[in-house]
Amino acid sequence: MGEGNGNRVKLNVKWQKQMLNDLEVNLSEPPFTFKQQLWTLTGVAPERQTILGLKGGKLRDDANWEATGVRSGMTIMLMGTAGEIPVENPIPMDVDAEKPADGGNGPAGVAEVSSGALVKPTLAPIGLVNLGNTCYMNSTLQCLNAIPELRSHIQQDLPQELGSTISFTTALRDLLAKLSSKNSQVSSVDPGQFLGALRRVNPQFLERSREGFFCQQDAEECWGAILTFLSNQYEEQQRRVPSQVPENAIETLFGLEMEVTDVCDEEGSDEVIKKTEMARSLKCHISQSVNSLYQGLKEGLEEKVSLSSEALGRTVEWSRNWRIARLPPYLWVQYVRFYWKSAAQLKAKILRNVAFPFTLDVHDFCTEELREKLKPAREVIRDRADKDSQVKEGTQEPDSKPEETLEEGLSGTYELIAVLTHQGRTLDSGHYIAWVKQAHDLWVKFDDDQVSLCRDSDIQKLSGGADWHVAYLTLYRTINK
């Protein structure tokens, strides 16, 4: 490889009548990353780019830079037409939050996002400036911004003023609006106003190190703090003017109703205790036997506890089992990767590889009653998949009849739309990044104010097993069409 500064070289790119001089290229990244850079400069999407002037002919997305003979000062040619390319299965960030793609409203007042809509991709998704160990907040906000219904409800339901907490909701509303802006001149925004509001209502985020710097925080705690505050505001608003706020949108969008069953394990007692709890996420427990999200969820829904037995008159061991009684449109999963390491007095990280799917089926974790409700929708999805397979094989003509619409949340099947990762060995250090789905096999990587594109194959590498970015939270959206 030719001259350059380490793994970086500077290239000149001729495109039409323009000359783009001294573009810095990181050779440790695949050529696809360079094509993303050209996309933001020219508007020519990677799929339309033909790059000539290097060894091997047309530059492939996964080419080995060393084999191309690239060196600093070279001039190469870019061929391709700038323009917006319609894509299928857009993420919510590209759908008007106040006007669902199907033109209607989903059940329970939650707008539906049509998975078949054709919308333009965001030419340059907007990043967030890191204000000093604030990647935990930035990555959380980018994941939340992938939920158009949340933006819509915050905009429409919650008042501009509500006591002393006005700044939090207003700051969040304004920031999400900026992130969803189509202003091609803005590459990143400063989240300082919202950060100040977050710290005012959650003093834990004001913690400083011995050197006086703000400490790194837990992204899952940030996510929980934001949703808890918004949920409390809904409840307060419902008490004040119940006719104007028909639902708590936070619980509608994310609320899981869990049926908890405790069974006494000791002989001489057949006691069974049942109760209902609410949650906003599922926990993926990680042990030596867990290699997949399914296994981790199963472990997280079963445990041994010590409870008092009335029949035996003493504290004994019980088996506790959780089952889902109500499914939400959006499903958050937390990977329990941190544990207290007493010898080092810190929260250490479990790096174990835990594979997570692009499509998650939680049917097995539901109550019998809910499973019965899931049957009709699952049969529709199964029949549709069979027909699609037959059409592809040429054994059946495409169905001209309109597809049956499934009632929201009743299939038990979810699609992955965002991943929040952590890189580092401890909870109090490291770096958080958000990865948000853009289209089929196309994702946006939000590394604070550095925004780039990646593929499904890159997302699959986030399962752990090394000092790379590791999934800490995953966001799934129900498949209801």
From TrEMBL:
Biased composition (Basic and acidic residues): 384-404
SMART domains according to UniProt: UBQ
Isomerase keyword on record: no
Annotated spans, Disordered: 384-405
Listed name of the protein: Ubiquitin carboxyl-terminal hydrolase
Reaction catalysed by this enzyme: Thiol-dependent hydrolysis of ester, thioester, amide, peptide and isopeptide bonds formed by the C-terminal Gly of ubiquitin (a 76-residue protein attached to proteins as an intracellular targeting signal)
Coiled coil: none
GO biological process: proteasome-mediated ubiquitin-dependent protein catabolic process; protein deubiquitination; regulation of proteasomal protein catabolic process
Originating species: Compsopogon caeruleus
Keyword Protease found: yes
Enzyme class: hydrolase
EC number from the UniProt entry: 3.4.19.12
InterPro entries: Papain-like_cys_pep_sf, Peptidase_C19_UCH, Ubiquitin-like_dom, Ubiquitin-like_domsf, UBP14-like, USP, USP_CS
Residues of the Ubiquitin-like domain: 9-79
GO molecular function: cysteine-type deubiquitinase activity; proteasome binding
Keywords attached to this entry: Hydrolase, Protease, Thiol protease, Ubl conjugation pathway
Similarity section: Belongs to the peptidase C19 family.
Location of the USP domain: 126-479
